[in-house]
Amino acid sequence: MPNFIGVSGLAGAGKDLFCSEVKNFYSKNKNLGRQVHVLSLAKKLKEDVRQSCLDIYEIDSVSASREEKNKIRDLLVFYGDVMRQKSKGSHWVKKLNKEVSLMEKKGEIKDNDIVMVSDIRYSEFPKDEVQWIKQEGTLVHISKYVLLDNPFSSGYELAKQGYETVKHYDAPPNKKERFNDPRVKEAADYLIDWPKFGDDSEQGTVQDYAKNFCDWFEKRIE
Question: I need a labelling partner for 60 at 20 to 30 A (CA). Which of 74, 156, 165, 175 fits?
Answer without folding.
Answer: 175
